[in-house]
Specification:
The chain is mostly helical and 150 residues long. The chain has 4 helices and 2 strands, in the order ααββαα.
């Protein structure tokens, strides 16, 4: 199984677990003399099977991510780089948006509001970080589809 396939199965399992939790909640109580629409015991068995499979997959995915390298960087390191680039990009984008906001003055006597940062410089840095993010994500995607799950 390729790493990408395991990642897809993990996503599917997470979604199924969420659905099972909701179905369990919906069948937790019934009116006296009535039967639940679904058997909670059966739903719990299915939930346990899904969680066991999820645990197994997560273990293999994490092991594979730690041990697989590309140009001296593990997949785990690439994921950390991607995630921190996303955090940094969001912060820069928010700052640029705030600093670019034009304030309208109705007369020359009103207080003039100026940007406290160099928006042009920050935009160039944002563009470079966005490029790094795309390249990092491309590397991760390529590794996911070429790496066998350990």
């Amino acid at each position: 199984m390729k790493l990408a396939e395991a990642l897809q199965e993990r996503a599917d399992l997470n979604q199924k677990i969420d659905e099972l939790r909701l179905r369990l909640q919906n069948n937790a109580l019934v009116q006296e003399g009535e039967e639940p629409a679904e058997d909670p015991e059966e739903l719990l068995r299915e939930l346990d099977e899904c969680v066991d499979r999820l645990e197994e997959l997560m273990s293999h995915i994490n092991k594979t991510n730690c041990l697989t390298t590309d140009n001296g960087e593990s997949i785990t390191e690439l994921i950390a780089k991607r995630d921190t680039l996303n955090v940094r990009i969001r912060a820069y984008r928010d700052l640029i948006t705030a600093a670019s906001g034009a304030t309208r003055r109705y007369s020359a006597s009103e207080i003039k509001i100026l940007s406290a940062v160099n928006v042009r410089y920050l935009q160039k840095k944002l563009d470079e970080m966005s490029k790094q993010l795309r390249l990092t994500d491309n590397r991760l995607q390529a590794l996911n589809w070429t790496t066998e799950l350990l």
